[in-house]
Amino acid sequence: MTTLSSKTAAPRSVSGWRSPQAKRAFLTILGWSVALVIFFPIFWMILTGFKTESAAIADPTLIFSPTLESYQEVQERSGYARFALNSVAVAFGSTFLALLIAIPSAYAMAFLPTKRTKGTLLWMLSTKMLPSVGVLVPIYLIFRDVGLLDTRTGLIIVYTLMNLPIVVWMLYTFFKDMPKDILEAGRMDGASTLQEVMFLLLPLTLPGIASTGLLSVILSWNEAFWSLNLTTSNAAPLTAYIASFSSPEGLFWAKLSAASTMAIAPILILGWMTQKQMVRGLTFGAVK
Amino acid sequence: MRDSLPMKNTSATPLGAGAKRSTPSGGLQAWLPRLVLAPSVAISLFFVYGFMLWTFVLSLTSSRMLPSYDFVGFGQYSRLMANERWWVASTNLMIFGVLFVVICLAIGSLLAILLDQKIRQEGALRTIYLYPMALSFIVTGVVWKWLLNPQLGIQAMVQSWGFESFRFDWITDPDMAIYTLVIAAVWQASGFVMALFLAGLRGIDDSIVKAAQLDGASLPRIYWRVVMPCLRPVVFSAVMILAHIAIKSFDLVVALTGGGPGYATDLPATFMYAHAFTRAQIGLGSASAMLMLGGVLAILIPYLYSELRSRKHG
């Protein structure tokens, strides 16, 4: 069937393959080879985390006796859990706050647009194009004066500011795609604006909101410019921890790999479980 | 619940189609959108643009460790112009930015075309291609620092296979180190470009491609002449987001090369950080931040403008 239809579509075989099956098999192998190359660095890092320090710098090999030594040492010597907790608190806290502020804004833009809605949105997004160093000194000075340096609250505030334009914009595109009739129907049944949002809009756009939230969590989880500049130890998340780990002790590859693996594991697992949302979120909603 | 909604909807639409909302609180309704929008707009614009203005003011002062408001005109800027390290950092950003964007677009579009051939397990492949994008630049830096290390990484691996003369030690070479940043960043972001392009390819009307095939056009020709022009808006968003990543890739430098060897891989962001914080030169650091901002705007605004204008026409 496939052979037939592709033959009728293309009178001349497009790339000179004897059969579409052979072509497809070749492309599948090619696709997986590329995937292997792309995934190799991550795979190698995970592997190195299970080696001893001396095995990590010996000749590269796939055969070795795995050990949890590095993981134990990372936890014992530097308290990995504390940094992980900071990362969780900051990523989810800022995502929650950003959604809380952005949902009403996106609602207003999508359902009650004015002449200036598009312009406002563009201006908000334009702030993302500006380098963060341009606002670093003022934020640092203010944080120092009000005692927000090296606090989770401070990081949550900064991350919320950082992600807000993207969150508003993504929610706006998702809200706009929703059929207006459904909201109309809700209104006809006497729902207030709040009820309309809570019981119609949010449940129906939940996949979009989840993608947006996941993107915000990933961006905050991975952020390093602000965490390196605004925290020292108390509120330092995993990114700052790994960065600090890598400079003075750069030669301890097994421990560094173990620490990095623990830092990316939640994202890799969460991402695999929610593939669709992750792809959609990471492409800023471009993939439906 | 979900299933019952459209049902209700179909019965209500004919009646409600023309009826506008008739709540008594019309005054509040008119203001509500602006009210709920205000926090987001105020936060984005005030904090970003307001603070940039503040940075600009600081760049005109002689601030060192603490901000002082002793104005010295454009003195910090002329000091900056005389600073060789600043020129290295700016040139690096240009090299890095251009190569990063161009290579990502090239690899990303090839990967998208590959996945567009209806191969099996496309969903899983797409997720794997996109995985690096979900990682922190810090982790990317750590991974590549290891792979690029001549004694441990790719060079050692290939040499252990018997190719003793194989050399890949760019990271220790001041002239080549900047390209290691490009490699790591391309690894991270090309899967993202792939996903964007793939979504764009799926949005293209099949009949256009079929028609070109009937005319006997070869596959590469179809993609280059027929499909790619349709993807112009996708290319535009990809370039904007890649440029944004290039501009903010401070963390990659910190984790991968630390700006070294020497200051060979400094970027304006790391230059600014080094001067404003570790060397207590807030005035000079602010001036460098403003110049970087100016450079970014000078490149992005014409592109933004030409794209948006041509889109309106065509």
From TrEMBL, chain A:
Name of protein: Carbohydrate ABC transporter permease
GO biological process: transmembrane transport
Cellular component GO terms, alphabetical: plasma membrane
InterPro entries linked: BP-dep_ABC_trans_perm, MetI-like, MetI-like_sf
Protein location: Cell membrane
Originating organism: Vreelandella maris
Membrane topology annotation: Multi-pass membrane protein
Keywords per UniProt: Cell membrane, Membrane, Transmembrane, Transmembrane helix, Transport
Coiled-coil segments: none
SUPFAM superfamilies hit by this protein: MetI-like
Sequence intervals crossing the membrane: 25-47, 88-109, 121-143, 155-175, 196-221, 252-273
Family according to the record: Belongs to the binding-protein-dependent transport system permease family. MalFG subfamily.
Domain ABC transmembrane type-1: 84-274
Main location: membrane
